[in-house]
Each structure stands twice: as structure tokens, then as C-alpha cells.
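USER: My hope is that you can spare some time for a protein that puzzles me. I am handing you a single protein, as its sequence and its fold in C-alpha cell form. Walk me, if you will, through where the backbone shape changes along the chain. The protein I mean follows directly.
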Amino acid sequence: MDTPQITPNQPTHSPQEEFNLRRAEHARDAARKLRQAAEFYEQAGQAFAAQDERNGELRLRSARLALEPIADELPRPPQPAKPRPVEKPRMDWGWFKYFVPGFIVLGLLYLMIQMNLSGDLSKGWTVQGDIREAVKYPGNK
């Protein structure tokens, strides 16, 4: 039975271990760049305190260049919250919005009947004279 021979130069890591090793190397690289940028910022602060503007600006530029490759991974300052308009509570009319106009119409009809405004033709017109006069052709009087 042939067993594969493992050579000292051949990696024996699983894909997850490889991924973790790459992440660890990336984190170490980011830490180195942060340490280097911190030193540049410290030197810039000392140069500005000593009234050496040119050297301070150079050190600040160097610090920004050191942070540029990892700038996307640095935390961002929190953004101020945008105010939202306050929603006013609205009354939910539900079934009430359908019945109010219905009650108004029924009330008007009831008042028309009680006040004799219903348009009943039998109250004031006679079949013999008034209707025949009303439907006559205008030229035949």
C-alpha cells in the first residue's frame, strides 16, 4: 500500500486553515501599518510643536500614505442621525365614515316628507285641468 510522502516544504493545511492564515497575515500587516502611521503622527505632532511646518506636513503626508492601503478597514465616525418627521396619529373612522353620509341623506329625506317637500303631484294638481294645460303644445292655447 502506497502512502503519500509528506515533504517538509509541502503545506498540510486545510482550506479553512489557509483562510485563517491569510486573515492572520492581513491583520498583522494592518497592525504594522497602523503602528507606522502612529509613529508618523507622533513625529508630525513634535514637528508642529517645534514650529517646523514643513517637516510636520511631510510626516502627516507619510502617515496618510501608510494608512491608505487599510483605509477601508478603519472605523468611520458615526454619522448624525437625520430627523424624521413625527407622524401625527390619525383617527381611524372605520365604518363610521360610511354611515355618517347615509344618516344625513336619510335625515334630509325624512325632513322633506315631514315638511311636504316630496314633490307629490297629487297634492296640488288635478288630473282634469292642470296636467292637460301643462302638457299642451305652446302654440295651442
Q: What stands out?
A: The first helix runs from residue 15 to 49. The helical segments are 15-49, 53-67, 96-114, 130-134. Residues 133 and 141 are 9 Å apart (CA to CA). The two ends are 132 Å apart (CA to CA).
